[in-house]
Amino acid sequence: MLCIKVPLKQAEKIKKELIRNGLLDKEHMIARDSQFIYFPIKKKFPTEHKIVFKMVGKRKLQSDLKKVLESKLKPEELELLKRSMDVIGSIAIIEIPTLLEKKEKLIAEEVLKNNRNIKTVLKKGRHEGVFRTQKLEYLAGEKTKEAVCKENNVVIKLDVEKVYFSQRLSHERGRIASLVKKPEEVIVMFSGCGPYTCAIAKNTPAKYVTGVEINPEGHRYELQNILLNKLSSKAKACLGDVKDIMPKLEKKYDRIIMPLPKSAADYLDVALKYANKNAIIHFYDFQKEGDFEKSIEKIKKACKTAKRKCKILGIVKCGQSSPREFRICVDFEVI
Ligand SMILES: C[S@@+](CC[C@H](N)C(=O)[O-])C[C@H]1O[C@@H](n2cnc3c(N)ncnc32)[C@H](O)[C@@H]1O
Protein backbone atom coordinates (compact mmCIF):
# COMPACT_ATOMS: atom_id res chain seq x y z
CA MET A 1 0.00 0.00 0.00
CA LEU A 2 1.30 3.50 -0.78
CA CYS A 3 1.86 5.37 2.48
CA ILE A 4 3.15 8.78 3.40
CA LYS A 5 5.82 8.50 6.10
CA VAL A 6 5.44 11.30 8.61
CA PRO A 7 7.35 12.02 11.86
CA LEU A 8 5.06 11.33 14.84
CA LYS A 9 5.08 14.99 15.90
CA GLN A 10 3.49 16.08 12.60
CA ALA A 11 0.97 13.23 12.41
CA GLU A 12 -2.18 15.14 13.40
CA LYS A 13 -1.49 18.07 11.09
CA ILE A 14 -0.75 15.85 8.08
CA LYS A 15 -3.75 13.62 8.75
CA LYS A 16 -6.07 16.65 8.66
CA GLU A 17 -4.48 17.82 5.38
CA LEU A 18 -4.87 14.36 3.83
CA ILE A 19 -8.55 14.20 4.80
CA ARG A 20 -9.18 17.75 3.57
CA ASN A 21 -7.65 16.90 0.17
CA GLY A 22 -9.39 13.51 -0.12
CA LEU A 23 -6.03 11.69 -0.17
CA LEU A 24 -6.31 9.49 2.91
CA ASP A 25 -7.21 5.88 2.04
CA LYS A 26 -9.76 5.14 4.74
CA GLU A 27 -10.10 1.49 3.73
CA HIS A 28 -6.63 0.69 5.10
CA MET A 29 -5.11 0.88 8.56
CA ILE A 30 -2.62 3.48 9.72
CA ALA A 31 0.74 1.98 10.77
CA ARG A 32 3.41 3.36 13.08
CA ASP A 33 6.84 2.63 14.46
CA SER A 34 8.84 4.37 17.18
CA GLN A 35 9.52 7.49 15.06
CA PHE A 36 7.08 7.60 12.16
CA ILE A 37 3.45 7.20 11.31
CA TYR A 38 2.42 5.77 7.93
CA PHE A 39 -0.84 7.06 6.48
CA PRO A 40 -2.22 4.97 3.59
CA ILE A 41 -2.89 7.26 0.61
CA LYS A 42 -5.01 6.94 -2.54
CA LYS A 43 -2.32 8.19 -4.95
CA LYS A 44 1.13 9.78 -5.12
CA PHE A 45 1.28 13.57 -4.77
CA PRO A 46 4.05 16.17 -4.36
CA THR A 47 5.11 16.39 -0.71
CA GLU A 48 8.18 17.10 1.41
CA HIS A 49 7.61 13.71 3.13
CA LYS A 50 8.67 10.31 1.82
CA ILE A 51 6.08 8.18 0.02
CA VAL A 52 6.83 4.52 0.67
CA PHE A 53 5.35 1.11 -0.11
CA LYS A 54 4.28 -0.49 3.15
CA MET A 55 2.16 -3.48 4.00
CA VAL A 56 -0.82 -2.31 6.03
CA GLY A 57 -3.97 -4.29 6.85
CA LYS A 58 -7.44 -3.57 5.54
CA ARG A 59 -9.78 -1.76 7.94
CA LYS A 60 -12.48 -4.02 9.28
CA LEU A 61 -15.86 -3.47 7.66
CA GLN A 62 -18.96 -4.20 9.72
CA SER A 63 -18.04 -7.73 8.85
CA ASP A 64 -19.06 -9.24 12.15
CA LEU A 65 -22.35 -10.66 10.90
CA LYS A 66 -23.54 -11.56 14.39
CA LYS A 67 -23.25 -7.94 15.53
CA VAL A 68 -24.97 -6.63 12.42
CA LEU A 69 -27.92 -9.00 12.93
CA GLU A 70 -28.21 -8.90 16.72
CA SER A 71 -31.58 -7.14 16.71
CA LYS A 72 -33.02 -9.02 13.71
CA LEU A 73 -32.51 -12.70 14.57
CA LYS A 74 -33.44 -14.88 17.54
CA PRO A 75 -30.50 -15.92 19.78
CA GLU A 76 -30.68 -19.51 18.50
CA GLU A 77 -30.55 -18.23 14.90
CA LEU A 78 -27.61 -15.98 15.72
CA GLU A 79 -25.83 -19.02 17.10
CA LEU A 80 -26.01 -20.67 13.67
CA LEU A 81 -24.55 -17.69 11.83
CA LYS A 82 -20.87 -17.63 10.80
CA ARG A 83 -19.18 -14.49 12.11
CA SER A 84 -17.26 -13.35 9.07
CA MET A 85 -17.87 -12.69 5.40
CA ASP A 86 -15.60 -12.38 2.39
CA VAL A 87 -15.42 -8.99 0.76
CA ILE A 88 -14.05 -8.45 -2.76
CA GLY A 89 -14.33 -4.82 -3.83
CA SER A 90 -17.99 -3.93 -3.30
CA ILE A 91 -19.21 -7.54 -3.26
CA ALA A 92 -19.81 -9.39 0.03
CA ILE A 93 -19.95 -13.17 0.01
CA ILE A 94 -21.78 -14.62 3.01
CA GLU A 95 -22.29 -18.15 4.27
CA ILE A 96 -25.90 -19.11 5.00
CA PRO A 97 -26.42 -22.24 7.11
CA THR A 98 -29.25 -24.47 5.78
CA LEU A 99 -31.47 -23.74 8.80
CA LEU A 100 -31.31 -20.00 8.10
CA GLU A 101 -32.11 -20.17 4.39
CA LYS A 102 -35.57 -18.69 4.96
CA LYS A 103 -33.91 -15.58 6.40
CA GLU A 104 -31.18 -15.23 3.77
CA LYS A 105 -32.68 -12.18 2.04
CA LEU A 106 -33.15 -10.38 5.38
CA ILE A 107 -29.57 -11.17 6.36
CA ALA A 108 -28.27 -9.93 3.00
CA GLU A 109 -30.32 -6.70 3.21
CA GLU A 110 -28.87 -6.01 6.68
CA VAL A 111 -25.32 -6.51 5.36
CA LEU A 112 -26.09 -3.91 2.66
CA LYS A 113 -27.62 -1.46 5.13
CA ASN A 114 -24.69 -1.70 7.53
CA ASN A 115 -21.84 -1.37 5.03
CA ARG A 116 -21.74 1.70 2.84
CA ASN A 117 -19.06 0.10 0.63
CA ILE A 118 -20.99 -3.10 -0.10
CA LYS A 119 -23.24 -2.92 -3.16
CA THR A 120 -23.93 -6.62 -3.80
CA VAL A 121 -24.42 -9.61 -1.49
CA LEU A 122 -23.91 -13.17 -2.76
CA LYS A 123 -24.33 -16.54 -1.06
CA LYS A 124 -21.14 -18.55 -0.63
CA GLY A 125 -20.67 -21.89 -2.38
CA ARG A 126 -17.86 -24.48 -2.21
CA HIS A 127 -14.56 -24.12 -4.05
CA GLU A 128 -14.51 -26.95 -6.55
CA GLY A 129 -12.76 -28.44 -9.55
CA VAL A 130 -9.48 -27.62 -11.24
CA PHE A 131 -10.35 -23.91 -11.42
CA ARG A 132 -11.14 -23.77 -7.64
CA THR A 133 -14.22 -21.64 -8.40
CA GLN A 134 -17.49 -21.52 -6.43
CA LYS A 135 -21.15 -21.16 -7.46
CA LEU A 136 -22.44 -17.92 -5.94
CA GLU A 137 -26.15 -17.23 -5.60
CA TYR A 138 -27.38 -13.63 -5.84
CA LEU A 139 -29.04 -12.38 -2.63
CA ALA A 140 -29.29 -8.58 -2.59
CA GLY A 141 -28.15 -5.26 -4.08
CA GLU A 142 -26.77 -4.66 -7.57
CA LYS A 143 -27.00 -7.73 -9.81
CA THR A 144 -23.36 -8.20 -10.70
CA LYS A 145 -20.63 -10.71 -10.02
CA GLU A 146 -17.83 -8.56 -11.37
CA ALA A 147 -15.75 -6.84 -8.71
CA VAL A 148 -12.91 -4.34 -8.78
CA CYS A 149 -10.66 -4.16 -5.76
CA LYS A 150 -7.39 -2.56 -4.79
CA GLU A 151 -4.55 -4.35 -3.04
CA ASN A 152 -0.78 -4.03 -2.92
CA ASN A 153 -0.93 -0.84 -4.98
CA VAL A 154 -2.69 -2.51 -7.95
CA VAL A 155 -6.26 -2.72 -9.20
CA ILE A 156 -7.69 -6.21 -9.67
CA LYS A 157 -10.86 -6.85 -11.66
CA LEU A 158 -12.58 -10.23 -11.79
CA ASP A 159 -15.82 -12.16 -11.92
CA VAL A 160 -15.98 -13.62 -8.42
CA GLU A 161 -17.89 -16.68 -9.62
CA LYS A 162 -15.80 -17.52 -12.66
CA VAL A 163 -12.36 -16.98 -11.10
CA TYR A 164 -10.79 -17.98 -7.77
CA PHE A 165 -9.75 -14.97 -5.70
CA SER A 166 -9.54 -14.22 -1.99
CA GLN A 167 -8.79 -10.77 -0.71
CA ARG A 168 -7.84 -12.33 2.63
CA LEU A 169 -4.60 -13.40 0.93
CA SER A 170 -3.59 -9.88 -0.13
CA HIS A 171 -1.19 -9.61 2.80
CA GLU A 172 0.55 -12.83 1.76
CA ARG A 173 0.87 -11.56 -1.81
CA GLY A 174 2.37 -8.36 -0.40
CA ARG A 175 4.82 -10.45 1.62
CA ILE A 176 6.03 -12.27 -1.50
CA ALA A 177 6.34 -9.00 -3.43
CA SER A 178 8.37 -7.49 -0.59
CA LEU A 179 10.94 -10.30 -0.96
CA VAL A 180 11.76 -9.40 -4.59
CA LYS A 181 14.70 -7.04 -4.25
CA LYS A 182 16.65 -7.69 -7.49
CA PRO A 183 15.90 -7.81 -11.23
CA GLU A 184 14.70 -11.40 -11.04
CA GLU A 185 12.88 -13.58 -13.57
CA VAL A 186 9.68 -14.51 -11.74
CA ILE A 187 7.00 -17.03 -12.66
CA VAL A 188 3.61 -17.33 -10.97
CA MET A 189 2.27 -20.83 -11.60
CA PHE A 190 -1.54 -20.93 -11.07
CA SER A 191 -1.81 -17.15 -11.40
CA GLY A 192 -5.63 -16.73 -11.47
CA CYS A 193 -6.66 -13.19 -12.40
CA GLY A 194 -3.12 -11.97 -11.73
CA PRO A 195 -2.92 -10.58 -8.18
CA TYR A 196 0.64 -11.90 -7.63
CA THR A 197 1.75 -11.12 -11.18
CA CYS A 198 0.57 -7.50 -10.93
CA ALA A 199 1.74 -6.87 -7.34
CA ILE A 200 5.26 -8.09 -8.17
CA ALA A 201 5.50 -6.33 -11.54
CA LYS A 202 4.23 -3.07 -10.05
CA ASN A 203 6.11 -2.86 -6.76
CA THR A 204 9.45 -4.59 -7.26
CA PRO A 205 12.59 -4.42 -9.39
CA ALA A 206 11.71 -7.84 -10.93
CA LYS A 207 13.05 -8.10 -14.48
CA TYR A 208 9.98 -9.88 -15.82
CA VAL A 209 6.93 -11.63 -14.34
CA THR A 210 5.06 -14.43 -16.12
CA GLY A 211 1.68 -15.74 -14.94
CA VAL A 212 0.33 -19.13 -16.03
CA GLU A 213 -3.35 -19.95 -15.56
CA ILE A 214 -5.46 -22.83 -16.87
CA ASN A 215 -8.89 -21.20 -16.42
CA PRO A 216 -9.65 -19.17 -19.59
CA GLU A 217 -11.72 -16.67 -17.56
CA GLY A 218 -8.93 -16.22 -15.02
CA HIS A 219 -6.47 -15.75 -17.88
CA ARG A 220 -8.76 -13.18 -19.58
CA TYR A 221 -8.88 -11.12 -16.36
CA GLU A 222 -5.13 -11.48 -15.78
CA LEU A 223 -4.55 -10.01 -19.27
CA GLN A 224 -6.97 -7.16 -18.44
CA ASN A 225 -5.36 -6.53 -15.05
CA ILE A 226 -1.88 -6.32 -16.56
CA LEU A 227 -3.24 -3.69 -18.96
CA LEU A 228 -5.29 -1.87 -16.30
CA ASN A 229 -2.15 -1.47 -14.17
CA LYS A 230 0.00 -0.51 -17.18
CA LEU A 231 2.38 -3.43 -16.66
CA SER A 232 2.62 -4.87 -20.20
CA SER A 233 6.32 -4.06 -20.49
CA LYS A 234 7.13 -6.10 -17.40
CA ALA A 235 4.54 -8.86 -17.17
CA LYS A 236 2.65 -11.32 -19.33
CA ALA A 237 -0.08 -13.91 -18.89
CA CYS A 238 -0.13 -17.37 -20.47
CA LEU A 239 -3.16 -19.62 -20.81
CA GLY A 240 -2.79 -23.34 -20.16
CA ASP A 241 -1.54 -26.08 -17.87
CA VAL A 242 1.84 -25.16 -16.31
CA LYS A 243 3.10 -28.61 -17.31
CA ASP A 244 2.53 -27.72 -20.99
CA ILE A 245 3.33 -24.02 -20.86
CA MET A 246 6.59 -23.94 -18.87
CA PRO A 247 8.56 -26.09 -21.34
CA LYS A 248 7.34 -23.85 -24.19
CA LEU A 249 8.53 -20.66 -22.47
CA GLU A 250 12.13 -21.88 -22.67
CA LYS A 251 13.23 -19.85 -19.66
CA LYS A 252 14.55 -20.53 -16.18
CA TYR A 253 13.44 -18.56 -13.16
CA ASP A 254 14.93 -16.93 -10.05
CA ARG A 255 11.62 -17.05 -8.18
CA ILE A 256 8.75 -19.49 -8.63
CA ILE A 257 5.42 -19.00 -6.86
CA MET A 258 3.11 -22.02 -6.47
CA PRO A 259 -0.22 -20.79 -5.01
CA LEU A 260 -2.23 -24.00 -5.44
CA PRO A 261 -2.23 -25.44 -1.89
CA LYS A 262 -4.49 -28.39 -2.78
CA SER A 263 -2.06 -29.96 -5.24
CA ALA A 264 1.08 -27.83 -5.69
CA ALA A 265 3.18 -30.90 -4.75
CA ASP A 266 2.19 -32.50 -8.08
CA TYR A 267 3.97 -29.66 -9.86
CA LEU A 268 7.20 -29.51 -7.83
CA ASP A 269 8.98 -31.52 -10.56
CA VAL A 270 8.18 -28.84 -13.16
CA ALA A 271 9.12 -26.02 -10.79
CA LEU A 272 12.47 -27.64 -9.98
CA LYS A 273 13.21 -28.30 -13.67
CA TYR A 274 12.90 -24.60 -14.49
CA ALA A 275 14.54 -23.19 -11.33
CA ASN A 276 17.85 -21.36 -11.72
CA LYS A 277 20.66 -22.03 -9.26
CA ASN A 278 19.74 -20.27 -5.99
CA ALA A 279 16.15 -19.79 -7.12
CA ILE A 280 13.55 -19.27 -4.40
CA ILE A 281 10.36 -21.33 -4.55
CA HIS A 282 7.23 -20.42 -2.58
CA PHE A 283 5.36 -23.69 -2.09
CA TYR A 284 1.78 -23.49 -0.74
CA ASP A 285 0.15 -26.38 1.06
CA PHE A 286 -2.70 -27.17 3.47
CA GLN A 287 -1.45 -28.65 6.70
CA LYS A 288 -2.64 -29.29 10.25
CA GLU A 289 -0.85 -27.56 13.14
CA GLY A 290 2.07 -29.76 14.12
CA ASP A 291 2.24 -31.41 10.68
CA PHE A 292 4.16 -28.71 8.83
CA GLU A 293 7.14 -31.10 8.58
CA LYS A 294 5.02 -33.10 6.10
CA SER A 295 5.19 -30.24 3.60
CA ILE A 296 8.96 -30.11 3.97
CA GLU A 297 9.06 -33.85 3.30
CA LYS A 298 7.16 -33.34 0.02
CA ILE A 299 9.78 -30.76 -1.02
CA LYS A 300 12.72 -32.93 -0.02
CA LYS A 301 11.28 -35.92 -1.87
CA ALA A 302 10.77 -33.90 -5.07
CA CYS A 303 14.29 -32.43 -4.80
CA LYS A 304 15.78 -35.89 -4.37
CA THR A 305 14.02 -37.12 -7.53
CA ALA A 306 15.08 -34.00 -9.43
CA LYS A 307 18.65 -34.35 -8.09
CA ARG A 308 18.56 -30.83 -6.69
CA LYS A 309 19.51 -29.73 -3.20
CA CYS A 310 17.33 -27.36 -1.22
CA LYS A 311 17.52 -25.16 1.83
CA ILE A 312 14.30 -24.42 3.73
CA LEU A 313 14.15 -20.69 4.44
CA GLY A 314 10.96 -20.53 6.46
CA ILE A 315 7.32 -21.47 6.85
CA VAL A 316 4.55 -18.89 7.01
CA LYS A 317 0.94 -19.48 8.06
CA CYS A 318 -1.14 -17.45 5.64
CA GLY A 319 -4.71 -18.52 6.26
CA GLN A 320 -6.97 -21.06 7.88
CA SER A 321 -8.91 -23.51 5.70
CA SER A 322 -10.79 -25.22 8.55
CA PRO A 323 -10.66 -24.97 12.36
CA ARG A 324 -7.52 -27.12 12.57
CA GLU A 325 -6.02 -26.76 9.11
CA PHE A 326 -3.85 -23.94 7.82
CA ARG A 327 -2.79 -22.66 4.43
CA ILE A 328 0.98 -22.47 4.73
CA CYS A 329 3.77 -21.27 2.49
CA VAL A 330 7.17 -22.95 2.64
CA ASP A 331 9.88 -20.72 1.19
CA PHE A 332 12.92 -22.66 0.02
CA GLU A 333 16.05 -22.10 -2.00
CA VAL A 334 17.15 -24.48 -4.75
CA ILE A 335 20.89 -24.96 -4.58
C1 LIG B 1 -6.03 -21.25 -5.44
S1 LIG B 1 -6.16 -20.47 -7.03
C2 LIG B 1 -4.98 -19.12 -6.87
C3 LIG B 1 -5.19 -18.04 -7.89
C4 LIG B 1 -4.30 -16.80 -7.72
N1 LIG B 1 -2.91 -17.12 -7.66
C5 LIG B 1 -4.72 -16.00 -6.51
O1 LIG B 1 -3.93 -15.88 -5.56
O2 LIG B 1 -5.83 -15.44 -6.50
C6 LIG B 1 -5.32 -21.63 -8.06
C7 LIG B 1 -5.44 -21.33 -9.55
O3 LIG B 1 -4.66 -22.32 -10.25
C8 LIG B 1 -5.31 -22.63 -11.48
N2 LIG B 1 -4.78 -23.93 -11.90
C9 LIG B 1 -5.08 -25.17 -11.40
N3 LIG B 1 -4.35 -26.12 -12.01
C10 LIG B 1 -3.55 -25.48 -12.92
C11 LIG B 1 -2.56 -25.93 -13.84
N4 LIG B 1 -2.26 -27.21 -13.95
N5 LIG B 1 -1.92 -25.01 -14.59
C12 LIG B 1 -2.22 -23.68 -14.47
N6 LIG B 1 -3.16 -23.21 -13.64
C13 LIG B 1 -3.81 -24.08 -12.85
C14 LIG B 1 -6.80 -22.60 -11.13
O4 LIG B 1 -7.60 -22.40 -12.24
C15 LIG B 1 -6.84 -21.42 -10.13
O5 LIG B 1 -7.12 -20.21 -10.78
Describe the overall structure.
This protein is α/β, with parallel strands linked by helices and 335 residues long. It folds into 3 domains: 2-53, Alpha-Beta Plaits, CATH 3.30.70.2580; 65-144, Met-10+ protein-like domains (GMP Synthetase, Chain A, domain 3, 2-Layer Sandwich); 164-334, Vaccinia Virus protein VP39 (Rossmann fold), CATH 3.40.50. The protein is built from 10 helices and 17 strands. Helix 5 crosses helix 6. It binds S-adenosylmethionine. S-adenosylmethionine binds at residues 130-132, 164-165, 169, 190-192, 195-196, 212-215, 218, 241-242, 259-260.
Structural class: alpha/beta
Largest sheet geometry: 7 strands, mixed
- The arrangement of helices and strands along the chain is EHEEEHHEEHEEEEHEHEHEHEHEHEE
End-to-end Cα distance: 33 Å
The unique ligands bound to this protein are: S-adenosylmethionine
CATH topology of the largest domain: Rossmann fold
How many E-type strands? 17
Mean pLDDT: 93
What share of the residues does DSSP label as strand, in percent? 25-35%
> What's the domain count?
3
Round the Cα radius of gyration to an integer and report it.
Answer: 21 Å
Low-confidence stretches: none
Output the CATH class name of the largest domain. Alpha Beta
How much helicity do the residues have?
Answer: 25-40%
CATH architecture of the largest domain: 3-Layer(aba) Sandwich
Number of helices: 10
What is the CATH homology-level superfamily of the largest domain? Vaccinia Virus protein VP39
Q: Which strand order does the major sheet show?
A: 13-12-11-14-15-17-16
Overall form: globular
